[in-house]
Amino acid sequence: MWNVLLSFSGLVALIQLLFLPFFPESPPYLMLQKEDKAGCLKAMKQLWGEDNYQTEFDDMMKEKAVTKSTKIMNVLEVLKEPSVYPQLRTMLLLLLSLQFCGLGATANLQESIIPYVSLGVAISELISIIFCSSIIDRFGRRILLWGGYLLMALILLLLETSLLLSDQLLWMRYCSVILIFLFLIAYGIGP
């Protein structure tokens, strides 16, 4: 019954995908990234109810003034910055720990292929982190969340199908592994 459990996470992603368009953008995103003061105030009222949010709005304006003088760094510049090394070590530790997640057993593969699957999982996570950090400022969190959940729901549907057919068609096991990699990339880019 593990495949039913796997399908459950797809159902949750689908529910989140359906409700996400009804939520407003994040007020700090609207203010700091889009420079939309009216949209920011509207989102505050929609999220937090009718009230006076001038203090929060002033805080965002101060943050905006501070961030204007801050240089935006790309991925390579961040990797060269010594102050982020503790966070990078933590991320690398998490990526390496994914090798022990058991995805090879999920896809019902030969034992000799499982180390390659574990390596693929770590590479998929790394790709998603680099890709997401490169595009999040351009597209915003809402689009990445929406697209990520949509991709995850589609991939989980395909994964369930490939796992059901893996006993009849042995090559479907490899499709399952590829779909697992794609799911991890979609999860890293979106949620």
Automatic annotation (TrEMBL):
One GO term describing the cellular component: plasma membrane
UniProt key word RNA-binding? no
Instruction: List locations, semicolon-separated.
Output: Membrane
UniProt-listed PANTHER family: MAJOR FACILITATOR SUPERFAMILY (MFS) PROFILE DOMAIN-CONTAINING PROTEIN, SOLUTE CARRIER FAMILY 2
Q: What is its main location?
A: membrane
SUPFAM superfamilies per UniProt? MFS general substrate transporter
Query: In its UniProt entry, what is this protein called?
Result: GTR9 protein
Q: Does the keyword GTP-binding apply?
A: no
Alphabetical UniProt keywords: Membrane, Transmembrane, Transmembrane helix
GO biological process, alphabetically ordered = D-glucose import; dehydroascorbic acid transport
Q: List the InterPro entries.
A: GLUT, MFS_dom, MFS_sugar_transport-like, MFS_trans_sf
Residue stretches making up the Major facilitator superfamily (MFS) profile domain = 1-191
UniProt topology in membrane: Multi-pass membrane protein
Q: Which Gene3D superfamilies match?
A: MFS general substrate transporter like domains
What organism is the protein native to?
Pedionomus torquatus (Plains-wanderer)
| UniProt-recorded Gene Ontology molecular function terms | D-glucose transmembrane transporter activity
| Transmembrane residue ranges | 6-24, 113-136, 143-165, 171-190
Indicate the secretion signal residues.
none
